[in-house]
Every structure is written in structure tokens, then in C-alpha cells.
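To: structure desk
From: M.T.
Subject: fold request, one chain
Message: Could you run this one when you get a chance? Sequence is below, nothing fancy, just the single chain.
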Amino acid sequence: MHSNLPLTMATYIKSCHLSRSVIVLAFILYLSLFSCILCVASVNVGKGGGFVQIKGPNFVINGSPFLFNGFNAYWMMNVATDPSERYKVSQVLQDAANAGLSVCRTWAFADGADDQALQVSPGVYDERVFQGLDFAVAEARKYGLRLILSFVNNYKDFGGRPQYVEWARSSGVQINSDDDFYTNPIVKGYYKNHVERVITRVNTITKISYRDDTTIMAWELINEPRCQIDYSGRMVNGWVQQMAVFVKSLDQHHLLEIGMEGFYGDTMPERKQINPGYQVGTDFISNNLVKEIDFATIHAYPDQWLSGQNDDSQMAFMQRWMSSHYEDSRTILKKPLVIAEFGKSSKDPDYSINKRDSYMNAVYRNIYMEAKSGGTVGGGLVWQLMADGMGSYGDGYEIILSENLSTDSIISQQSHAMGTLAHMLRSGPENVAVNQAREVEFGQVRGHVVNHRKGMRKAGP
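Reply: Done. C-alpha cells follow.
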């Protein structure tokens, strides 16, 4: 549309035989309009510009510290597959941006034979679904958010590991269990093909290749890898090493993480006592020490992992879980850490919004204080934001910002605090008063954020 403006203006001037002064005025107005168009375009290329990178144990953009508050919205590609439902993706991203959220984690996979599958069979893709992912990436770019895109699920939801090994089994490959996903060369070939198709995809809306798009913050190898036949973490580690090298061979720009929950394995046996009573076949230390892995992640669901214990015990576990991983990421891994999933389910016994808000505030306080004290934590991603009318995607953890104003306020408060901290760090670490009471700072922020958000919220649903 913009390319037609010069021709239209010239044609209009010639046809009307206008005076020189009018022509000059028209030309000035045209330049002003064109400048506005460029300004609008510059707003829609993502906040800060440039790729998110690593500098030592911290995230940076264009060399400046990058701290964030973010969220999960795994469903975006699937919902955007139907053009009539795309407004839900736009609404969540707009609400998230208004709340100061700057990073979103979502799925770049849906494997199987149903009508919403991205990969229908190995190497066979539904372009309609891929365009749904294109829309999600383009909208995130429009609202200035960064994305973490995950390549595959550990679980059978949306296909995942079980679908990959079933494809191999159906083609006559000898398969013993779902854990063959990590070792069978045929299955690994299926996975590599999918990774390459996503990374080299050219967005049909923005016309930008995914691997060149600064909207994407990072790739994720697999959501919550687990392995039943080797609890030490060694089998998963071999797979991570191979696939991380493969991803980096395709894309040198974007960051890479595994998608781990944070369970400890055999590298540090004394750390196993931090686990919630069991192992899952991963090793937080050795897996994240793989050179090509840029940052570590943990997930935290004490309401699931310790479902028989009370709120105080679950919160105590949460504090130990986070502090242990903070220490290890700082002293052993020397890499950034993201709390990539956390939340509180409405299905929990005695659940209330006040309890959820209190829990989220405690987690946010922990993240903030660690970042403020010079730690490696970059931010947290709450699970999960949704739009109204998406009941089929709900799991008890969903948050609809327009309907949960107290939670919206807490999220906005954290976003503002992390953004302010990043700004202070850009000015120099000496400007960050480590011993300042966060409660005082958050008390000041709360009034500002709540009043600001009240002024900007749209009327109606």
C-alpha cells in the first residue's frame, strides 16, 4: 500500500494543475505523512530492536541489560489456524503488552492426524496451521513482545514424543518405548526435519525468515523432557548435545534452551534431595552445561508435585527449588536462568484468587530480589494467559487479565519493577540499592501501575 503513495501524489498534482505554493504545501504534508508511517512501522518491530543475546550470565539487547516479565500461551498457533478466532491471539498479546509483559512462550508444534495438526506425518505439513503460527509471530512483533518457540512436546498432548515414535513404529522401525525418541536415528531424523522446517520458515505475513526475526527470543528443544529408562540424565544429555549442535548449525542468531523443569540427576547427588521426591531422567547441571545451550530453565508446580501438603509446605519447597537453581546457575553453569513455568491452579483444594495472587506475588518477589542482588535470573513466565471464550484450552491455571483485575495488577507491578531494575542496571550497577526493601518499592509501583491501568482499560468485554 505504501509503495503507491508517491505515484498517487504525483498523479494528483499533475491532473489538477495546482499552483507552486499549493504543490509545495502538499509535498510537505506528504513527507509528514510518510514520516508518520515510518514511525508507526518502527513501533511495530519489537521493543528494543536487535536479537536477545547473552553477555556473561545475563540477557542483553544491543549490549544493554534485558530483564523481563512474561507468560505462557501455548495455544496461539492452534487458535490462529482459524482466521475467525485470531482476534483472541491479538487480544491476549495486546492485554499482555498493556500489562508490561515482554516475553511469551508458545508451541511451534502440533503432531498427528487431526485437523489442527501442523505436522500431519513426518515431513508433511498443513500450510493452514503454519500460517496460524505466522500470525502469532507477526502479532507478537506488532505488540513488541519476544517469543520462545518450542519444537516438540514430551507428552502425548499435541503429538509429542509418543507421536514421533509411533510414526517410526508404523513404518516398520523396531521401537521399544517412547524413550527411543532420544536414541533411534530414524526418529531423530524426523525431529531434525521439523526443527529445520520451523527455523527456515519464511513468515507469510512479515516476509521475514524465522531465523532472521528478532521477535523470536529463543528456541526450545522440547517441553519438559523426561526419560523413564535412564534416570541419571545421561541419555537425555546425549540427545541435547546432538540437537543443540544441529540447531546452532541452522541459526547462529537466536538463543537456545532445553525446556527443562529443573530436576537434578547424577552429576551432583547431594542436589537430588531438592527434587520433590523423585527423578525424571534429566540432570539440571550436566544438561545445561552443554556448550550450545545458552540459558537454563526451571518449572515449578508444588501444587502438583506436593499435592498432599499444605500451602506453607509447598511455598517452602518453592523457595528451596528457586534458591538452589539460582545458586547453581550462578556458580556452576554461569548462564542466565528463567522461571519458565509457574502458577496456581483453580483446581487446588481451598483455591481462591487471593491465594493465587499471594503465591504469584511471593514468586515475583523472589525473582526480583535475585535479579536485584546481581543474580543470573532474567525473568519469569507465568502459566498461562488466555482470552475469554477459550474454555477448551483451560487447565485450571488460566488467567484472563480483563476478568482478573487483582492478578492483572500484580503482573503489571512485576513488569514495571523488572523494567525499572533493567533501566537502573543500564545506568550502572552502583545505582541499584541492593538492600532497598522491595515492599517499599512495590508499594510505590502498585499505586502508579493500578492508576495507569485503570486509565487505559477499554470499556466493555
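Reply (cont.): The longest helix spans residues 20-43. Let me know if you need anything else for the meeting.
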